[in-house]
Write a structure and sequence with these properties.
Length: about 525
């Protein structure tokens, strides 16, 4: 029964995606890379949420909650504020310009070289870090949670390879041959399944604690573990409270407002109104994210009495303990969809960046839309195979590799955010300032985290990496503004208007955005 429900849901998603995309012109740039600029609010919100939510968060964040409690909800709730800022400030400017990739704005604002450097930084992060880790962590979760080696009668290594290639091949079909619309539609269906399946776990968990009563279970959980429901983290926690006002918001703004994998969904909006509604809808749902990626970890801590040797085992073990066997197959399909979404979204965005910012810009400047799509797909195939070969080898890497690779992402996230923010807020800062800021950001962050922190000061005595990000952001903004004063652009920059998209805003963006921000603030006051 579990196997039947797994394949039934997976096939249903594929059929819906095929039907929804069969009339889209996949040979044009807008058709393939931006779904013909046709996405509506619901599709945008669903795709945003599922692109973000995968096994790294479901398993990893619940593992942190098992250890530290509700304070790790900052990664979810503060994302809602970042989406509100994106809806109000960044998206109207993106759609007014009619861009397909974020680096295209940087070419308009600075120069072609700045765009190319940024595209290369994005691609390096996706190729070296994101794609292989999504494949590996997703495959590992499925192998562990559902004991595939026993079920299939094979070694753990072979089961891991099988899952990696299964996820990789199916994800590649969606991302490479279906374009963004296939990715977004499948994401939306999977998002519905993930929200339902994800909420089932804490509900069954609370009922398990309360001997059939969820309310009794919640009361028992709250009264027995009061320290787990304190949202203010001290300096020894993974998220000290002070970081919320420094690097945390910068990381969130980079991820939700400038990261090509995420923002490409909003760039494909039918119009500005649908794009803003999609972001606000996603922000509203994101506030409920802790129910899926935080609360189960606390429930697991209570049920297993804090005795698990590996915190990341908390969620898989909770699922196998509280979920009825009849629902295991459906939940496996939902989890598979979440893993698939993160992989195919990153792959589709990589294809977009290569096709438009590398191939058309340097390899074939006179390329037609059909040629750009064709060679972008070929690049995607090579990239997918590379990720599928590399991912299983991560199992042989030393302990702590995931944390190390996540820290590496800071090398490019803050420099890119810096030049985008300065680019929109100023008119006279020249291209040379952007290049210096990116170079400075990458070098100084690398020296800080990988030389000074481990070799000079020691990890225990060094500022939190989110504080370091904030310091470098302010420093690089200052460098750019100084260069702008000493060597300003000859002509003030003016944002061009491309009439591809109706940029009439959603009338209730500000009041709805304000309400979302107030709910986030209230949640911190309530759990302080």
């Amino acid at each position: 029964m579990a196997i039947i429900s797994f394949f039934a849901f997976t096939i249903l998603v594929a059929v819906i995606a095929f039907v929804a995309t069969k009339n889209t012109n996949e040979e044009s740039e807008d058709g393939y890379f931006l779904a013909g600029r046709s996405l509506t609010a619901g599709v945008i919100a669903g795709s945003l949420l599922l692109t973000n939510l995968s096994t790294e968060q479901i398993v990893g964040l619940n593992g942190q909650a098992y250890t530290e409690g509700i304070l790790v909800m900052a990664w979810e709730t503060l994302a809602a504020i970042a989406m509100v800022v994106t809806a109000l400030f960044l998206l109207p400017r993106y759609l007014k310009q009619g861009i397909t990739t974020v680096p295209q704005f940087l070419e308009s604002r600075y120069d072609k070289m700045t765009k190319s450097i940024t595209s290369a930084l994005f691609l390096s992060g996706y190729v070296v870090v994101l794609l292989p880790i999504v494949l590996y962590s997703g495959a590992l979760a499925i192998v562990t949670m559902f004991d595939l080696p026993t079920a299939l009668g094979m070694s753990e290594t072979n089961a891991l390879w099988l899952c990696v290639w299964g996820i990789g091949i199916i994800g590649s079909i969606y991302a490479i041959f279906g374009g963004l619309k296939a990715v977004a539609v499948s994401d939306t269906v999977n998002a519905i399944g993930l929200l339902i399946g994800g909420i089932m776990i804490p509900l069954f968990g609370l009922a398990y604690i309360g001997d059939g009563s969820m309310m009794a279970g919640m009361s028992e959980l709250w009264n027995s573990n009061p320290d787990k429901f304190k949202v203010i983290g001290d300096n020894k926690s993974s998220i000290p409270f002070s970081t919320i006002f420094t690097g945390m918001m910068l990381v969130q703004l980079f991820y939700w407002g400038t990261n090509q994998v995420i923002i490409q969904r909003a760039l494909a909006a039918k119009n500005l109104k649908e794009g803003q509604k999609g972001l606000l809808l996603a922000a509203g749902i994101k506030i409920l994210g802790p129910l899926i990626v935080v609360l189960p970890g606390i429930i697991a801590y209570h049920i297993f009495e804090g005795q698990l040797a590996v915190p990341d085992q908390a969620y898989p073990k909770l699922v196998s303990t509280v979920l009825p066997s009849a629902l295991v197959g459906l939940f496996a399909a939902v989890l598979f969809g979440a893993i698939l979404s993160s992989f195919n979204s990153a792959l589709n965005s990589s294809v977009t960046l290569f096709g438009l910012d590398i191939y058309k810009a340097y390899l074939n400047k006179d390329a037609t839309d059909k040629q750009v799509v064709k060679y972008g797909k070929l690049f995607g195939v090579l990239l997918a195979f590379f990720a599928m070969f590399i991912a299983p080898l991560i199992a042989k890497a030393p302990d702590g590799l995931f944390g190390y690779l996540q820290e590496v992402n800071g090398c490019y996230s803050i420099p890119i955010l810096t030049i985008i923010v300065v680019g929109y807020f100023t008119k006279h800062v020249p291209a040379i300032a952007a290049k210096i800021a990116m170079l400075s950001g990458v070098i100084l962050y690398s020296i800080s985290q990988f030389v000074l922190k481990p070799m000079v000061f020691g990890a225990d005595n060094y500022p939190h990496f989110l504080h370091v990000m904030a310091i470098l952001f302010v420093l690089n903004v200052g460098i750019m503004l100084l260069i702008g004063q000493l060597q300003p652009r000859p002509q003030a920059y003016s944002l061009p208007y491309n009439e591809k998209v109706d940029i009439t805003p959603y009338a209730y963006t500000k009041p709805v955005g304000a309400l979302i921000c107030l709910i986030v603030v209230f949640s911190y006051l309530y759990f302080r």
